[in-house]
Amino acid sequence: MTLRNAAYADMAWLALMSLMLFVLLLPISSYVAALPLIKDEWGLNNTQAGGIYSAYLTGYALSALLVMPLTDRVGPRRILAASASLSIAAHALFPLAAGGVTGALILRALAGVGLVGMYMPGLRIIAERFAGSRRGAAVGLYVTAQYAANSGSLAVTGLLMAYLEWRDAYLVMSLAAAAGLPMALLLLRGHGGSAQPGISGRLDLAVFKNAAAVYLILGYALHALQLFAARVWLPAFLVGALIVKGVSASDAAVDGAAIGGLALMTGAIGPLIGGAVSDRWGRAASASAIFALSGCCAWVIGWTVGLPMPAIVTISAIYGWAIAADSAVYSTGIVEVSPPSALGSTMAVQASVGLLGGVAGPIMFGGILDLAPAGVEWPAAFSSLGVVAVIAVVGMQRLRLAQGVPLASDLDNAASPR
19, 52, 82, 404 - which has most CB atoms within 10 Å? Predict the structure, then answer.
């Protein structure tokens, strides 16, 4: 096979891997789409609603400490297939058996366990297959599939709820995800993986001695905090804006989910663009610029309720792109600064510590909505994400300085593990 044909084969495989992830994650935002209806039916306050969402991330964060180190020992292929089965089952059971806060927390946590075992091993497989100037873009395409699934799930579930009860819409999305399982088995059939039998498969905390990895993990945590807060509450914000404009609560719930999904759809291409840009400009410089844009949007968007809906949707779309675009930067950077024998543990800490920010984000945002004075709830909550962006930019600059790299140069061409 010529080099050109091999490159085409790699790209076709990457496209199919991304499609597989998209299908497996079809129900990922069905809870968010149905949230206004679930809140009314179960009598939830904003903090409880955010907590149920964050149970998904809690399951992800805690299980990552066990799941990802195992990829150093047994390879990622088996873990991905088993986790996909768990994810499909947990999502399908949510509309059938949740019934209230306790059941919802358990099933959402199990779905989060399934997510980490699908998503992170897939990232590892792709990052190890693609190297050099193609790695950021390759990882970015896979991450883009995850963001596309979040937005598509939100929009399609919202559209289905116009015709079906929310439980039926959620179940349809969950069953459709099952089509991704045979795709995973076929695509990874010949993948030998990165199994290293001499490795224990247990978490190695020496990760925290790698300064570059620690700063990248911090950046990922702050990225996840604002990302998941916006994913949960931006559709609800749009619902509120529609109600202010005279739309009925039931129609606003359906329209807000659909509009929110479409607005956030711009984020679907964010990781691909962000990853490709970071291949050229460097990981830290790219992350800093993207965080600066998302911070500006966060400071503004909460004050826009009174604006015409096209203006609100436009700002939401820009914000949706910005909160997504830096995601592949951290995952790619982690692979580049970690020794191969510790990559599973480093990705475990990235997923776990990073997603703790994701757990905190929706709860923090919901708490501010509950506590802020009437009339400034949305500006106060979104402005808190603007503060997060400022902290993240400072962290990314410290990352560059910690490596002894001048601020105008490419950190990632010079970075190495310490």
Answer: 52
